[in-house]
Design a protein that fits this description.
The chain is an alpha+beta fold and 438 residues long. The chain is 30% helix and 29% strand.
Length: 438
């Protein structure tokens, strides 16, 4: 007869063993879950990137200041919009003696809304696109601290929203309402003390800064870094009776002092484009001159052949210049690792962690751009076989090298390049080449 105490001990032992195995499996499962949950990846997809650099830039134009004897006797109220083409001796503004600044601002807002709606499609789709463009521009203006631009954009948003509220088909009615408001405001100004006439044909602008005779088209061509610095230290001309200005030619210029390395990205005749707040379409520029100077500075001059209608380009601009276009993988900076002196990233295919080397060719915001490189095995599969040069001789072959063990800190430097559609590990713990997870 079996000893009951012995059987009880055996049963307890078996139960304890099963419990220990179960607990081990349970803990192991949750440890595995915690590791895999903490791995975050992004796909390696090759794409084009614009590498840019931000610089202060200055505008040079062939422009003439308009003065009038009656301009100082009241407020100059333009009768044409900024950037409108005018003929010689035409009336461009009236001078009103008792108009408040608030009334002038209100009139400019109404006129801005009219111009915007006249240049827009009457469809709801066109209106929606316009609203989207304005909101993006407003966001950019606020981020850059350009509050005056955001105020103008807010006015545009009001006009587009009003047209959108009519269903898009009644834009004409909205414009007529704004025209009536414009006439009402002008009537409230009373009689004009006099009119302002332009001495030349060209493009009229209400604003002026006293640099019209300093920042000229003739001066900027082939300007050196030191000459540009000297101009920037020049005091503006004092203006009496100023009533606006007229730009005489459609070609104008932008000049900036850059570092020599960035200036080397441009050559005479190159074309590029920039985007300015308040202008929907990019402006196409042509490189006019590249002049190297002392202290690692290069003056680069660009020309533009487009006068933005309804928009006055400021004398001083902050511009993101495109230095070059590169194609490669966008690799988050936090994903870049060093292993055995090799720069690369870890990849994860759902089971295996691998280290892939990368060749960083540029920096872009919060990521590096890695060149697209082909591994030897990939080249062998994709390139056609070379023509045979066999002469019948037996060629010597090198003895095969033993494979380095796969792992961290092994001295291995023959890692494969990162390839298209692999998944880059952005976040993960205890990673090393060859680790199996999952």
């Amino acid at each position: 007869m079996l000893d009951k105490k012995y059987l009880r001990r055996v049963a307890l032992y078996i139960f304890g063993s099963l419990l220990a195995i179960g607990m081990t499996a349970y803990i192991g499962y949750h440890l595995w879950q915690s590791v895999t949950r903490e791995i975050e990846t992004v796909p390696a997809v090759s794409q084009s990137f614009s590498v840019t650099a931000e610089y202060d830039a200055w505008v040079f134009r062939d422009e003439v200041l308009i003065t009038s004897e009656v301009a100082d006797s009241g407020t100059v109220v333009p009768s044409v919009r900024d950037g409108e083409r005018v003929s010689k001796s035409s009336s461009v503004a009236g001078v009103y003696p008792t108009v408040s600044h608030d009334k002038i601002t209100e009139l400019e807002t109404v006129r801005s809304q009219i111009r915007l709606l006249e240049g827009r499609h009457t469809s709801t789709v066109g209106g929606d696109l316009g609203i989207g463009e304005v909101m993006l521009s407003m966001n950019s203006s606020v981020k850059n601290g350009e509050l005056s631009d955001s105020s103008e954009l807010a006015s545009r948003l009001v006009a587009l929203a009003a047209a959108r509220a009519t269903g898009g088909g009644n834009t004409v009615a909205v414009i007529e309402t704004l025209r009536a408001k414009e006439a009402e405001l002008l009537a409230s100004f009373g009689g004009a003390a006099g009119n302002v006439y332009t001495p030349y044909s060209g493009w009229y602008y209400n604003g002026f800064d006293g640099y019209e005779s300093i920042f000229t088209s003739d001066v900027v061509k082939g300007i050196s870094p030191s000459a540009l610095e000297e101009l920037l230290n020049t005091e503006p001309v004092s203006v009496n009776g100023g009533a606006g200005r007229v730009v005489r030619t459609h070609k104008w210029y932008i000049a900036a002092n850059m570092t020599s390395s960035h200036g080397a990205s441009f050559e005479e005749g190159d074309t590029t484009s920039i985007t300015l707040t308040g202008i929907a379409d990019p402006l196409e520029l042509t490189v006019e001159s590249v002049v190297n100077g002392a202290e690692n500075k290069t003056a680069v001059v660009f020309s533009c052949g487009i006068i933005p209608e309804g928009y006055d380009v400021d004398r001083h601009l902050t511009v993101d210049f495109t230095l070059k276009e590169v194609t490669g993988f966008g690799v988050p900076k936090e994903a870049v690792r060093m292993q055995d002196g090799v720069t690369g990233v870890y990849t994860y295919n759902g089971v295996l962690v691998k280290f892939r080397k990368i060749d960083i060719i540029a920096e872009y915001d919060d990521m590096y751009i890695a060149a697209v490189r082909k591994n030897e095995s990939t080249v062998a599969l994709t390139e056609p076989p070379a023509e045979s040069t066999d002469t019948g001789d037996v060629a010597e072959t090198a003895e095969p090298k033993p494979q380095d063990p796969v792992g961290e800190g092994t001295g291995r430097t023959d890692f494969d390049w990162l390839e298209e559609n692999e998944f880059i590990v952005v976040k993960g713990k205890a990673l090393y080449n060859g680790r199996v997870i999952g």
